[in-house]
Design brief:
By secondary structure, the protein is an alpha+beta fold. The chain has one helix and five strands.
C-alpha cells in the first residue's frame, strides 16, 4: 500500500483529470483553456487543500474532506461546460 504522503489528495487528483480533459462529464476544451475568475469556498484549515465552486456549495458549507469551516474566496478556473447526453427514442 502507498504511504499517505505519496498518495494524491482527492481534490488534486480530480483537478488533474479535469485539466487533462479526462473528466467524464465536464470539459473546458470549448473555451480554449481560458481561465475565469470564479467564486469558491476554500477550507480554512492549513492542513487541508479542499475547495468547492460556489455553484456546487450548500447553504452551510462545510469542508467535504475534513468537515471544517470554509472561507468564501476567488480562484482562476476553466469554465465548466456540461455535456448533454442524447436521449434514445
Amino acid at each position: 500500500m502507498t504511504p499517505a504522503a505519496e498518495r494524491p489528495i482527492l481534490g488534486q487528483l480530480t483537478l488533474n483529470r479535469f485539466l487533462k480533459g479526462r473528466h467524464p462529464r465536464l470539459t473546458s476544451q470549448d473555451e480554449g483553456g481560458k481561465l475565469f475568475l470564479t467564486k469558491i469556498w476554500k477550507c480554512k484549515s492549513p492542513d487541508c487543500k479542499a475547495w468547492v465552486r460556489e455553484e456546487f456549495a450548500t447553504e452551510e458549507q462545510k469542508c467535504p474532506m475534513c468537515k471544517g469551516d470554509m472561507l468564501r474566496t476567488m480562484k482562476h478556473l476553466p469554465a465548466l461546460v456540461k455535456k448533454v447526453k442524447s436521449r434514445s427514442r
